[in-house]
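Worked example

This section walks through a single chain of length 452. The input is the sequence exactly as stored; nothing has been trimmed or padded.
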Amino acid sequence: MDLTTHWAGFLAIAIFIGAYILVILEENIHLRKSKPVIVAAGIIWVLVAFTYSSMGDTHTAEELVRHNLLEFVELFLFLLAAMTFINTMEERGVFEVLRAWLVNQGFSLRQVFWITGIIAFVMSPIADNLATALLMATVVMAVGGSNHRFVALACINIVVAANAGGAFSPFGDITTLMVWQHGHLQFTEFFALFVPSVVNWVITAGLLSFGLSSGNPEPMHEEAHLKHGAVIVVSLFILTIMMAVSMHNYLHLPPVIGMMTGLGFLKLFGYYLQRRKDEELPRAARQDSALGSEAIHPAPGSFPAKNYDIYANLQKAEWDTLMFFYGVILCVGGLGAFGYLAIGSELMYTGVGPTISNILVGVASALVDNIPVMFAVLAMEPEMSQGQWLLVTLTAGVGGSMLSIGSAAGVAVMGQARGVYTFFAHLKWTWAIAIGYAASIAVHFLINADLS
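Given that input, the structure is written out below as tokens.
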């Protein structure tokens, strides 16, 4: 139904805008971003159901909300599995070893700037841009210390590199994952964005590097070791990615089936680690007893060693982010039920044209986050060529880098380097990121012209 002029439709838009203002102000008011959008989603769908029922239709609203819930469940389970793997690798010391190696090498500040950017670009297609940005941010903060200018520039570089690296892989960003799950692009077709993504980061990093000062950081020495099973966990993660891709490409099953199967393998391996820990604890207790140690009777206030628990890594998933996706998907779906997405598609992709519309999607991603913008585009279902779907994937992925609030990586690093990497510190270099954004689009049209 076209209910775009109905009072309930106007109220739904006002509720969504109000909720998203609270999301944007998260850092200032300290209200988790998932809370306002979850409430807004519920109210919007009540309005949808009430409006449809008042017109004699008691079934369509239920069908539409079930469709949106299916969209969310596929995304939720996929991300939950991926986050659990990342948390397990972190718990097994994989990222800590990488961090210690970088810190101990004695690189100059300029070398650290480029090395962390390269690693962020290479890691994000596999480990997602959020986890990669957080890891690299801890490195530059440890190396930069009190050199706030270096830390700020390096953090901007990491956010841009992580977002650019995530743009050419279905596993690198939420927006690319959504495009892949909707079937608009096959897994290997995303790789056509590799060169534009490289251009986006390299040009921006080159401009940022002019603001760096020369010199070497204070020498540091950190020790870190891989825990038992770390290599197997990494291998299982790679196997899981292969299963997700294979099930989607060859068996035409949703990628989430492969991810959840891999999560099952990880949980079985967690059972082995748990049993191994169960055997070690009694053995250690017997040894302490033989030596007359007081370990069997710990002093008041001390904590006994705990068994390994794979569910602890699952519990550390970004639940606020996952619930935020629920709210956004249902809010946008509710607006679509009123007919606003159909009008948006008509105005943008039929009136203005796909090229300009897709470039504007990247600009909008910087202002209001790329996830709701991309979901709105997918819900509009515009008729576009492969080249245009690649373009909107690129712009939504790298466009968010223009502002610190435009991507999950930027928001997370602001929290990690609080007071140093800020909205305004990032804003000073938006012009450089915009040049990289424009250059990546130009390169895409140049090398992928045959796909348009």
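What to look for: Residues 369 and 406 are 4 Å apart (CA to CA).
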